[in-house]
Specification:
- It is a single chain.
- 62% of the residues lie in helices and 1% in strands.
- By secondary structure, it is mainly alpha-helical.
- It has one domain.
- The protein has a two-stranded antiparallel ribbon.
- 44% of the residues are buried.
Amino acid sequence: MFKQVIRWFSASPPRTLLLGFSLIIFIGAQLLRLPIASVSGESMSFVDALFTSTSATCVTGLVLFDTGTYFSTFGHWVILLLIQIGGIGFMTMATLFALILRRRISLKERLILQEALNQGSIEGLVRLVKKVIYYALALETVGAILYAIRFAVDMPVGRAIYNGVFHSISIFNNAGFDLTGDFRSFSSYSSDLYMNVVSMVLIILGGFGFIVLADLFDMRKKKHKFSLHSKVVLSVSAILIVVGAIIILIFEYTNSRSIGGSGFGEKMLTSLFQSVTTRSGGVSTVDVSEFRQATQFFIIILMFIGASPGSTGGGIKTTTFAVLVGAVLAMIRGKEDVVLFRLRLAQERVYKAVTVTLFCIGIVMLGTMVLATTESAPFLKILFEATSAFGTVGLSMGLTGSLTVAGKLTIIFLMFVGRLGPLTLTYALGPKAGRILYRHAEGKIIIG
C-alpha cells in the first residue's frame, strides 16, 4: 500500500511537488508543536501548529499568535527555515544539496524543477537554480545588513543582527512574519523612510521572480535584451504599484483612523508601502482594518493579482493579468491576436490565463463561502482574509486570531493551493490526459 502511494506521487512532477510541500508542512508542524518551540514551554495544538507551518512554508504570514513574543528562538529558526524552503522552493533546495554532493541531476528531477520554477523547457534549469540560490542569498544578506544597521539604533547589536537576518529572509520571500511584537507589523516604523525603502525594495525584488532578477543582473552585459516576460513583469508591476499608491492615497487622504492625521510626505510613503505590500509582502505599517471599505476592496483586487511567476509571491500573477488585459483590448479593437510589446502571444497562453483566473476566482469564492458559514464576521472581512490567504499575502483585518477550527482548516487549504498553484494541484489530482485523436464539429453560441 505504501509503495503504491509513493508510486502515485512520483508519477508526475505536480504530484511530487504536492507531496514535497505537504511533507515539509507536516514536519514543520511537528517541530512547532515541541515545547521548546514556545516561550511558555507549552505545546501548541496540532491545528494551530499546522496553520503556522503552512503559513510559513507557503510564505503567507497569517498568524494566530504573535511570532516575536509567542515563539522561542528555536521556534523562530523553524519558521525561518520553512520560509526559506517555501520561498525558494524545496526542489531548488534539494538541487542545491545535490550539487554540493556533486550528484548528477536526473531527467525526472529536471522535470520537477521545470514545474516548480514554471519554466517552458528543461534547458538551462540547473544553471537557473544556481542563479536563484545566488541571488536569493546575496539579496537576503544585503537586506540583513541594512536592517541590522537600523535595528542597532533601538536594541543591542546581537539582537539587531538576529532581527535583521529574520526580517530580511521573511520580507524578501514575501512571507510577512516579523518579530516586532505587534500584529500590525512595522507600525512603529511607519514614518521611517529608511525602513520603508529597504522593505519595499526587498518585497519588490522578491515579487519579480528569479527569471526577471537574472535578466536584471545580466544588464551589465553588452547588447543584452530583456525577454518579453521581463518586460511584461517590470511594466505591469510598476503600473500596479504607482496606480495602487495613488488610489490608496486618494481614498485614505482624509481618513483620520489611517493616514488622515499625517503630513503629506508620510501619507505618500504609507500609501506607496501599502501598494507594494498588498502584492504579496504581508507586512504593514498601518492597520488595514481601519481603512475605508473602498480601499479594502481595492486591496483585495491587488492581492488577487499578486506577484509574478517564478517568484516568492502568490495570486494569479502579473503576467496573467497582462494577458487578460491584452485579450480584452484585442477584442475591443477587433483584432484576433493578443500583442504585447509588438510580439504576438500564442492562443494557448491566452487560454491558460483565462483558465488560471477562473480557477482562482472559483477557489476564493469557495473559501469565502465556507468562511462565511463558519465565522461570525462581516462579509468584506471574510473576503479579505480568504483573498489574502490564497494570494499568500498575509494581510489581515483581524479575523485570523478568532478563527474556528473549520475556519483555520479553510485558510490552510487556501494558503496551500495559493502557493502550489491551482493548475499544479489540478494536474496532480486529476487523471492523466490522453491524446485526443479527433475534433468536434464547430458550433456557434451568442456571447454578451
